[in-house]
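Hello,

Our lab assistant flagged a job as stuck in the queue for most of the afternoon. It eventually completed. Since we weren't sure the result was trustworthy after the delay, we are filing this so someone can double-check. Below is the sequence as submitted and the structure that was eventually returned. Let us know if re-running is recommended.
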Amino acid sequence: MDLVALCTLMGLSITAFIVPLLWFRALDNRRASQILAVFVLVVGVSLLQTLLLHSGLTLRHPWVSGLGQFLYFALGPLLYCYTKTLADRTFSLTPREAWHFLPVVISLLVYLPVYLQSSEIKRHAVELYFAPEGVGGVPQLVALPLSTKIYIAQFVALMLHLATYSVLTLRQLEKHRTRIELVFSNLERINLSWMRWLTWLVLAVSVMSLLYILIRLFFPSPVSPDLRVVPVLIMAVLVYYAGWMGIRQPQIYGTELESNDPSDEEVAATDKYHSTGLSAADAMEHWHRVQQFVEKEQPYLRSGLIIKQLADELSMSTAHLSQVINSYAQVTFFDYINRQRIEYSQQQLADPEAGKRKVLDIALSSGFSSQSAFYAQFKKHTGCTPSQYRNRLNDPL
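-- returned structure --
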């Protein structure tokens, strides 16, 4: 058993541990967790195929070659649907969404002739996989058995398919970020930044795999076979990271906010503030009210503040409040509230009597939910860290 097989066993062990935790997760976003569980399981099937190859079982039992190959076309849609389920509460996996998984069926039908090939032909394909040299060019490629050609075509199509859905998922995550900035003042754990990293990882793997197969096909001196361990290690990391972060991911709408959670109509309204019909005079009056209320009541000191809460306290609609903030402050609700928090924290840092207070204490008292969020926003609005700001005040020269 080689190094690739050993690393694959590690990945399969993680998969066997993560999948049940995700599937039986007793939380409000169980549906999303189950989609992620299937995603991890399909990655596990890929790891199992790799284990069979590198342990020699595929050569001894060629009938296992390619089993589950068609399932890999579900990876991209599952990644996309998981993101949609978390970020868009109106989305659900209905029969209408089944077209996303049509390539899985097409792949099964296309790969069916491979399953019907003789054991000798399947063994030849495995030997070609382990061959130290590449195919070597178009003439050699044409001479390959049908099963090998189908496998190569499927692999290339899979990488392109996975890259396409990675891009779609990244666009969905960007839309999600824009949407929640209109509603929430704290985005930690709901901005799905970990999903962005995961998706970039999937995109990178698909591009690197595509380049690798092209090198194998058209160049006589391919990349060292020892590098086959790299994608296996990446898949193991992907399984662990996706599972762990998926287990920790809270419900974005509803769980923490409960009765204060904005309705679907109100969230949609904040995204269409330009069409609320509010006159310029009324908008200016609303803006003055907002400024006075924020200065006097300091609602930004509440870490869980959302736009609906502030709108209710001002007796105005969320759409109108979003409009005046976007129009007069020229920022989203998220940026507006965090700008107030940073200004308040600057006052705290400049207070001589508060010189011994810890940065975390100042962050929490300013309305931030964590020190990392405080540091990120402080650097964004002032160009320096809280510690650097405090040192400049103490030593202006």
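-- support follow-up --
The delay was a queue issue, not a problem with the job. The result is valid. Residues 255-260 have pLDDT under 50 and may be disordered. The radius of gyration is 27 Å.
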